[in-house]
TrEMBL record:
The gene is ttrR. CDD domains: LuxR_C_like, PAS. The keyword Nucleus does not apply. This is Tetrathionate response regulatory protein TtrR. InterPro entries: PAS (IPR000014), PAS-like_dom_sf (IPR035965), Sig_transdc_resp-reg_C-effctor (IPR016032), Tscrpt_reg_LuxR_C (IPR000792), WH-like_DNA-bd_sf (IPR036388). Keywords: DNA-binding, Transcription, Transcription regulation.
Length: 178
């Protein structure tokens, strides 16, 4: 039975079972490229820039969902044609005892607000945590690195994004007007 609210929602929606797409809506298929049926039974792994990103983000998401049943982040994803883009992902588990067993996720293309600049997975982690307002010491503790290493990553991010100071970098990373 078709569900028009799901099918025609103005945001990309997917129903996942163990991180495998069981169904998606029209907006999701348009965002990633192709038709809805192209995604049926597709591992979500195929839409990540790398297997490492899939594993790392999955571990972080699983931990949050075990605690709250919900997860949200902004990340780089990959379209079917290989193009990378910024995406906001939000998920709600329907099986709290096993969060990835069954859930509903939304995906929004936020690439107009953010340029895709080649970042290492570690730089992406540092960028995301910096946007969350964490200090270099807090980021270092969360990633198991020294704050000096985090400062070195931030210096590279400043250079890559053409920012002079950390607030300008955060503005550029979060798509805020300067």
């Amino acid at each position: 039975m078709s569900d028009p609210a799901f099918e025609y929602a103005p945001i990309g929606l997917v129903e996942l079972e163990n991180r495998i797409i069981r169904r998606c809506n029209l907006q999701f298929s348009m965002m990633f490229g192709g038709k809805e049926e192209d995604y049926r039974d597709m591992p979500l792994l195929h839409l990540y820039p790398s297997h490492e990103d899939f594993e790392r983000i999955g571990a972080r998401g699983l931990q949050a969902m075990q605690e709250t049943g919900y997860y949200s982040d902004e990340r780089i994803m990959r379209r079917r044609n290989g193009d990378l883009f910024w995406c906001r992902a939000r998920g709600k588990s329907l099986t709290p005892d096993d969060p990835f067993r069954h859930g509903i996720w939304s995906f929004s293309d936020i690439s107009e607000d953010r340029p895709v600049i080649e970042l290492t997975p570690r730089e992406r982690d540092v960028a995301i945590m910096t946007c969350r307002g964490l200090s270099a010491k807090e980021v270092g503790l969360e990633l198991g690195l020294s704050y000096r290493t985090i400062e070195a990553h931030r210096a590279r991010l400043l250079e890559k994004f053409g920012a002079r100071k950390l607030p300008e970098l955060v503005a550029k990373l979060s798509g805020m007007p300067l």
